[in-house]
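Quick check before the chapter quiz. The format below is the same one you will see on the exam, so make sure you can read both the input and the output lines.
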Amino acid sequence: MASCFIIYKDGRCFSKRWSGYDEIIKIAIKELLLLDDGKELADWLELQIPILEKEIENDSCYGFYNERTNDFINRHLDTRSLTEENQNLFWKAIQNGRIRFINEGTAYSPLDFDYFERFYKMFELAENNEPPMEFNDWSKIANSCTEKNGPGWK
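Here is the expected output.
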């Protein structure tokens, strides 16, 4: 059952199982740490997934109680809520991660590669301004985003 959501710039949604969501975020974190100016976003993304040894007990699949922030975190990332710079960093990290995933396979990530490719295909379609409803896990386009999440907002 779908329990996590990643919204792309065109409002399409990747909605799959929570464990895959966590692995995608881990790929982004690994790659952000290798990019100039990526550490601050990587640190914020770390707070969006549970520490398995500690916080997994409080995990309801769609979210978890984060002991580090004393807050309930939903597994929902609307990339449009990030600063423009952080959106670019996030997607650059995902592109770099895909290359490493292709080259290193399960040594790089335990995530099923086809799962990641479905996520990545949605990114490519959004970037190419393809109609979002033609490849979307929701039956509608996400409402416009007014939230401001992650570092960098003034």
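If your answer matched, good. The helical segments are 18-32, 39-46, 52-55, 84-104, 113-127.
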